[in-house]
Amino acid sequence: MAITKKATAIALGTFISVGLTTQAQAGYMAADVAFVIDQSGSMQNEFAWLGNSLATMDNQMRANGIDARYAVAGYERLAGSESNKNIFVDFTKDFNTIASNVNFVNTYGSQERGYHAAHWALGGFNWRDNRVKMVILITDESGDQASSMTESQLAGVLKANNVLLNVISLNNYASEWDEMVYTTKDGEKGFFDLDKLRADPELVTHEIIKRKVKEIIEAPEPTTAGVIGFGLLSLLFTRRRRLNQAK
Questions:
Q1: Is 168 exposed, middle or buried (0-12, 13-18, 19+ CB in 10 A)?
Q2: Which residues pair with 132 in a beta bridge?
């Protein structure tokens, strides 16, 4: 009996140590990544960029131990499912569905409310619990057109809902998003220059993917407790079975 208890304790300690080390090194976790894109005529290429880059992005996510789902919503005055003019694909792993929507998107002109779109995304998508939540908003216009929320208010709402916001826009609009974009522990802000993306899509896509992987891995691990709990139950079940077989 004493030997069995000791073996169980050693196995448990090893499981927790190896499990946490593996999680920390590989960054294994689940993430929901939602793209929210200004659907005006000047953004046609950005929709095409997403359709062409999503598979590459997911390959890098999986290579770093991240299981991700993706969603996309267009916006102008209204966002995503608020208007039938907008593209809207809820979270999925079906890249063909997303690609077929973004490659044939109908752009139109209206007032572009980026702050509203970012706020809509909090409830507009079907986020899952125990997943890192990330919004990547893309626009070439001012984010706060006719918005009912200030930058500080939206930053507070995003933080309260544990949503990491990244923005790809023109540099002259960077100050509009400064308070609310996610900032890594070493001070890197989740804002990317849209002009650079347009000039060199391959290079900037690589930089964006690298940063997203870093942000997701850096975020609090939402599944560790569940993994450890499952491991504890497995060990206890195995020990009980062996005791019953010895009787």
A1: buried
A2: 31
DSSP assignments along 132-149, one per residue: EEEEEEE-SS-TTTT-SS
Q: Measured between alpha carbons, how far is 79 from 231 in angstroms, rounded to an integer?
A: 42
What are the structure tokens assigned to 121, written together?
Answer: 């995304």
CA-based end-to-end distance of the chain: 12
Main-chain dihedrals φ then ψ at residue 147, nearest 5 degrees:
-85, 145
The residue assigned the tokens 């609009």 is 173
Task: Give 100-120 pLDDT, tens digit per residue.
Answer: 999 889 999 878 999 999 999
Q: Range with the lowest mean pLDDT among 23-37, 192-206, 208-222?
A: 23-37
Does an H or E element contain 19, and which?
A: helix 2-26
Locate 217 and state its tokens: 């891995």
The secondary element (H helix, E strand) that includes residue 44 is helix 44-63
Q: What is the DSSP secondary structure assignment for residue 127, as one 8-state letter?
A: P
d(CA 171, CA 241): 63
Q: How far apart are CA 77 and CA 38, in angstroms?
A: 10
> What's the length of the chain?
247
Contact of 144 with 169, CB cutoff 8 Å: no
Sort 189 into a burial class: Cβ within 10 Å, 0-12 / 13-18 / 19+.
middle
* Alpha carbons 207 and 160: distance in angstroms, whole number: 28
Query: Which of 130, 128, 119, 115 minimizes the C-alpha distance to 158?
Result: 119
Q: Phi and psi at residue 176, in whole multiples of 5°? A: -70, -20
